[in-house]
Design brief:
CATH topology of the largest domain: MetI-like fold
Number of helices: 18
CATH superfamily of the largest domain: MetI-like
Number of strands: 3
Largest sheet: 3 strands, antiparallel
Distance between the termini: 37 Å
Strand order of the largest sheet: 2-1-3
CATH architecture of the largest domain: Orthogonal Bundle
Shape: flat
Helix content: over 70%
Length: about 400
């Protein structure tokens, strides 16, 4: 009887347990200044007794729904309850930070503690599970997916969280943040675009000429195994030598450090997923479809444009999606060679032992990865022919 009642969704249960484990940890950290370690405050001491009761009750509700909720309305209720956990956590954090700052010196800072990060992590692990189980019900799926995030953006926009240390850091460096964000987007987007322009022809070449397949994927696989920092370092010496030998390159901004080695490395990293997916997309086409096109009198170019390209486009775009998400993360490392980007905040924070500056760079990179992934998934869905989508 118990085994029939228990839900097999271990992902949701894992997320809820992670959230429950977060309760004994420190939820806020009061620091005398931006660099000091600070004192951890428990859920009750930091957010207050009322907030503690609400968050604990919500987590217990989520536990019951994750264990026994199999029906659609129960999964939806679980997703909404998880979003309420996130909303309540962020909502109560704002005034708690203001209260703590009001009683402390002017240079004091309040940062989210391990408890807040763990509870948000646990909530979104379980929310992901609910989203998967609500496929086919877009209204409820989108509600569960975006309710918490939308509420956080509203709270941020109204200044509710202005007393948190990471928001203070953002306001102090807002111009620099915008500049590095734009730089980050330009670096990864330009690199993936160039990698797609090179990778797609390589994939077509590998599919058309079997002798080319081995060398193409041998080289691109080797590039993929080289750590990003090592590849950036390997490019410094030859680009420095070239810029010294040809001064015009320096005038164009090409040197051993900066954007040039970063873009070259990111383009090289983009080649394997794009070329591989292009190759697979063309190779897996049913020969009967190609023969039918030939029987209709299509030329080689017409076969490619009207049959091969539309049918392989979803898989090619999946390769571009993989390359894009990968490039968002790798671009952060490019800050070490002077290319800029959001990684600039991460390494500045590490060098200054300022965790909130690290968060100022790391969280937008994660958000950017999710945005790029969602956008590319949408592009894949649009590019998928209706017949293929039905299957």
């Amino acid at each position: 009887m118990i085994r029939r009642l228990l839900s097999p969704d271990t992902v949701a249960i894992t997320g809820v347990i992670t959230g429950l484990v977060s309760l004994p940890f420190g939820w806020l950290t009061l620091k005398p200044n931006r660099l000091a370690g600070g004192t951890g405050l428990s859920l009750t001491d930091g957010l207050g007794g009322g907030a503690t009761v609400i968050i604990v009750v919500l987590w217990i509700t989520c536990l019951a729904l994750s264990l026994f909720g199999r029906r659609r309305w129960q999964v939806t209720a679980l997703g909404i309850a998880l979003n309420l956990v996130v909303i309540a956590t962020i909502f109560f954090t704002g005034p708690a930070a203001a209260r703590l700052i009001g009683d402390a010196p002017t240079v004091a800072r309040v940062s989210p503690g391990v408890g807040i990060w763990l509870t948000c992590l646990g909530a979104y692990i379980a929310i992901f599970s609910c989203r998967q189980r609500l496929k086919g019900f877009p209204l409820w799926q989108n509600l569960v997916s975006w309710l918490g995030l939308l509420s956080i953006f509203i709270l941020l926009g109204t200044g509710w969280l202005d007393n948190l240390s990471v928001i203070v850091e953002f306001k102090n460096q807002q111009a620099q943040f915008v500049r590095q964000l734009v730089n980050h987007v330009v670096l990864f987007a330009g690199s993936v675009f160039a990698g797609t322009l090179i990778g797609v022809p390589l994939g077509i070449w590998a599919a058309r000429r079997r002798r080319a397949e081995g060398p193409i994927f041998f080289v691109t696989n080797i590039v993929q195994t080289v750590p990003s920092l090592a590849l950036f370092g390997l490019l410094i010496a030859p680009l420095s030598a070239l810029s010294l030998a040809f001064p015009v390159l320096r005038e164009w901004g090409i040197s051993g450090i900066g954007a040039a080695p970063a873009i070259i490395a990111l383009v090289l990293y983009s080649l394997l997923p794009v070329a591989r997916n292009t190759y697979v997309g063309l190779s897996q086409l049913d020969p009967a479809i190609i023969d039918a096109g030939r029987g209709m009198g299509m030329s080689r170019g017409q076969l490619f444009r009207k049959i091969e390209l539309p049918l392989s486009a979803p898989l090619v775009l999946e390769g571009v999606r993989t390359a894009s998400v990968q490039a968002v993360g790798n671009t952060a490392v490019a800050a070490l060679i002077g290319a800029g980007g959001l990684g600039w905040f991460i390494f500045q924070g590490i060098s200054q032992a300022a965790n909130d500056v690290v968060i100022l760079g790391a969280v937008p990179i994660m958000a950017l990865s999710l945005i790029v992934d969602s956008a590319m998934r949408g592009a894949v869905k649009v590019a998928t022919p209706k017949g293929l989508g039905a299957r």
